[in-house]
Amino acid sequence: MAEALMVTSPVAGRVVAMRDVPDPVFAESMVGPGLAVDPDPAAGTSAVAPCAGVVVKLHPHAFVLLAPSGDAQAAEGSGRGVLVHLGIDTVQLEGEGFALLAAEGDTVEAGQELVRWSPAAVADGGRSPLVPVVALDLGTDGLTEIAAPGTVVRAGDPLFRLG
């Protein structure tokens, strides 16, 4: 059986329920369950890895990590996917205002800086700076919230546990 995976906040800010994210794909958990963080613009411009794993997708505005399943019997390349999306509709920025600090295929540690960005610039451009953190390919019963909506977190503080 797979070990539980702790998923931490990639940014400092206030925890927001996924249903309150102003995008139906996230709000209705179409991609998967999770939580979002309303970033504190005074807390810096780093987005860090919410868990250890391999960077399987990396875009300026979003990344996916594949965390090891922890199951000794699991096939190589299997694991649990975690999506971090930096702001809502930020794909429209075509990378402007984002600096990548990792590459697809990199193995990263929890808390490692992966992207630099400006939540304030995203908000100034009329977009939501909310950061959804999503457990991919997981039913809602596989996720345990650690940080309740409204909680103020620092980057690296626990958000939820998988498994």
TrEMBL record:
Name recorded for this polypeptide: PTS glucose transporter subunit IIA
GO cellular component, one term: cytoplasm
Originating organism: Promicromonospora citrea
Record carries keyword Metal-binding: no
Pfam family, one: PTS_EIIA_1
InterPro entries with a match to the protein in the record: Dup_hybrid_motif (IPR011055), PTS_EIIA_1_perm (IPR001127), PTS_EIIA_component (IPR050890)
Keywords: Kinase, Phosphotransferase system, Sugar transport, Transferase, Transport
Main location group: cytoplasm
Lineage: Bacteria, Bacillati, Actinomycetota, Actinomycetes, Micrococcales
Annotated PROSITE patterns: PTS_EIIA_TYPE_1 (PS51093), PTS_EIIA_TYPE_1_HIS (PS00371)
